């Protein structure tokens, strides 16, 4: 091989590293690491059973777009509940008052759509979940009760009479019976899906609810029924204060 051919071969070979690097990056999939804050928030409102927590996500290999997060809860009697992602919140900045008051965080809350995770960058969000099966039953109940209430108004009947209907009674029973939280130990599995990635990323944690915790949450069912009544028969000066529980968690080993 003469010198010119050798140089041409070397020149062609010089393109291989960037080409190989390009295809490696093209087909490389992100790897996500999930970290849940040591303390979570549990509640019950007219939205049903609720779970909120702070979640940190980091991406290795390449950036990605998180498109869905679910939390699967296994309760004391091994009953399982799926909680779907509803919203996320991020802290934008803090207002520092330079006095004894301290500072106030300014947060932005939005509906759950997607979260972009840059490569080797840690993203921290507060994420909120509602129980999936309740949402479906709730929509059916509110649609049926609204139709009955509209009929009552069209017929110039007393709005209070909606409370005597079968539809209202079923709605009330749904709010009274849909609390999933019981005394005992829980296992939670966080499932995260990213766009164009087949793998589901996950992490697990455990927590416990006491008898007193459950009593506080059960009292929220009474508040939920008051909210229902207020929706159809408004009264001035109405206020509701939901009880929330903040158990500490243990990460699964």
Give a written overview of the molecule.
This protein is α+β, with helices and mostly antiparallel strands and 253 residues long. The protein has a single domain, classed as Immunoglobulin-like, CATH 2.60.40. It has helices at residues 3-13, 16-27, 132-154, 166-177, 211-232, and strands at 31-36, 41-45, 48-60, 64-74, 80-96, 103-111, 115-117, 122-131, 184-194, 201-209, 244-245, 250-251. Strands 1, 2, 3, 4, 5, 6, 7, 8, 9, 10, 11 and 12 form a twelve-stranded antiparallel sheet that branches.
Throw out a few tags for this protein.
alpha+beta; 32% helix; 12-stranded antiparallel sheet; elongated; single chain; Immunoglobulin-like; 253 residues
Task: Summarize the entry for a quick read.
The chain has 253 residues and is α+β, with helices and mostly antiparallel strands.
């Amino acid at each position: 091989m003469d010198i010119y051919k050798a140089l041409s071969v070397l020149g062609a070979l010089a393109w291989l590293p960037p080409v190989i690097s390009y295809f490696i990056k093209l087909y490389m999939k992100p790897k996500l690491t999930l970290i849940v804050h040591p303390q979570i928030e549990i509640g019950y409102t007219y939205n049903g059973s609720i779970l909120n927590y702070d979640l940190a996500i980091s991406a290795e290999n390449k950036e990605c777009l998180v498109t869905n997060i679910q939390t699967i809860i296994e309760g004391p009697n091994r009953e399982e509940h799926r909680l779907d992602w509803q919203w996320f919140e991020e802290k934008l900045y803090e207002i520092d008052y330079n006095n004894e008051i301290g500072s106030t965080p300014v947060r932005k809350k939005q509906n759950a759509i997607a979260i972009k995770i840059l490569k080797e960058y840690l993203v921290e969000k507060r994420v909120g979940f509602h129980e999936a099966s309740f949402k479906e039953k709730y929509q059916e109940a509110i649609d049926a009760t609204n139709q009955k209430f509209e009929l009552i108004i069209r017929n110039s009947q007393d709005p209070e009479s909606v409370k005597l209907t079968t539809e209202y009674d079923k709605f009330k029973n749904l709010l009274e019976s849909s609390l999933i939280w019981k005394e005992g130990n829980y296992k939670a599995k966080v499932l995260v899906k990213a766009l164009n990635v087949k793998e589901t990323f996950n992490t697990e944690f455990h927590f416990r609810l006491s008898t007193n915790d459950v009593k506080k949450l059960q009292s929220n069912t009474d508040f939920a029924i008051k909210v229902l009544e207020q929706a159809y028969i408004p009264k001035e000066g109405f206020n509701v204060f939901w009880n929330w529980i903040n158990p500490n968690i243990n990460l699964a080993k």
